[in-house]
Description:
The complex is a heterodimer of chains A (176) and B (133). With 176 residues, chain A is mostly helical. Chain A has helices at residues 14-34, 48-59, 61-79, 85-104, 114-137, 147-175.
Amino acid sequence: MTASATEQTLRVTAEDRLIARWTALAIALAVAEAGLPSPIPGIKPGLANIVTLLVLYRAGWRAAAWVSLLRVLVASMVLGGFFSPAFAMSLTGACCSLAVLAPASRLPRRWFGPVSLSLLAALAHMAGQLLLARLWLIPHNGILYLVPIFAVAALLFGVVNGVLVAWLQRRLEEES
Amino acid sequence: MSSHTPDWAVWRSLIRPGDVLLALALLALLPALFAWCWSGDSATRVRIYQDGRLFAELDLQAARVLAVPGPLGTTSVEVAAGRVRIASDPSPRQYCVHAGWLSRAGQSAICLPNRTSIELIGKDGPAYDSLSY
Lengths: 176, 133
């Protein structure tokens, strides 16, 4: 009997399991965060990015990109609004963060820790989303008035998330 | 260390020198960002209308006083250092004179009784297609 093309066995690697586990955590955080009230639409802590950064430190950029993009995909399905403008916004934010994290993760670790990466990722996230909003959703320069507010939020949550990542990373290292 | 008592030495040890420098650098850029985003477009030219027709278009950098004749008398438009104002006008209520110095694109002052108005234009052209009154 010839081997059927449909009977290929899917080999699950250790990295797949790791990505799945972290993605599940990221989705849970993203869904929990959607329940938090926000003064301005779009301003939120971005807790799921803590997971992205932890994976970046523990398993590299590739795994972090998987976790980040899968989280965006599944969280938008769970919350509703798959392929909606909100989905496009969060996908853009995630892609911009990842694009910045690729070179930023090569910065000397002795000098630049998780706080730096978190800050840069948060700003890239914000910048990408504002650019998309300006080009597509609100094609008017009035959106410029919101830039400083979003920048302050990105700085604040960037630092807070970064410290949390550093703390969690240390705890995880101590345990293993 | 117990995880229940916050230990500031531990929290401080989580932050690297570069993190502090980066955060301070970004913080230092914030005032410039606020200034840039929250200060509308400054105007470059002013258009002076008399009885619905364009009477003159002046550069705001060239200081001068222009007398615009109208049905009630002469409206005096003064341009100085990127700003413009109605210096005097024969209208009874003086609304356009009280508008004071204008410098942002899209601003206008209208002396209705004397059928004279000024409109400030930014680098992107007029802020509105037309003003109807």
